[in-house]
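Dear colleagues,

As part of the handover before I leave the project, I'm documenting each prediction I ran so the next person doesn't have to rerun anything. This entry is a single chain, and its sequence is reproduced below.
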Amino acid sequence: MAPPMSANEFLAALRREGATVVEVDGWRHHNRAGHGPWGPVNGVMIHHTASSGTDSTVRLCWNGYDRLPGPLCHGVIAKDGRIHLVGCGRANHAGAGDGDVLQAVIAEKRLPPVRWADTDGNVHFYGFECVNLGDGEDPWPDEQLLAAEQVAAAICRYHGWTERSVIGHLEWRPGKTDPVGFSMEQLRERVRERLK
């Protein structure tokens, strides 16, 4: 468990890892403060957006929609590997998930099968939405996968976590499938190698 990074710490950690960052105006203070706590933080969650187009996806993740206000993540990872920062603080990305999974993340152990939605994940996870249709056919360019690796490793390195603190939405909440198109074990292995 750890206190969340400040905006400056977050930006610096991403840049130290070599990530290409785009700061969306106002991201440092854009969050869901007042709608639940932010922290202690325990991990990084990766999603796909089920959308296409960087600009429209960044707007969606900034604004949210009728039933779910933005920000919908902390950063949007575009196909070209640029990370568009849209929030700092509590964000509406994880939703309720399995408390047993959270305990495994905290202990940095292998994840159990996801069964319940009994724990607020927005408290505990940094979230990144990757621009992808999530249909199993939309490609994942190397630049985008590298950026996902970089953001996950940057946060893990800052907090002193291992790759076991990186999970996919499908590993957190019953019924979720994202990300589709690569395995979280593959991403965790890339993060593990980067953290050596």
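The chain has five helices and ten strands. The longest strand covers residues 43-48.

All the best with the project,
I.
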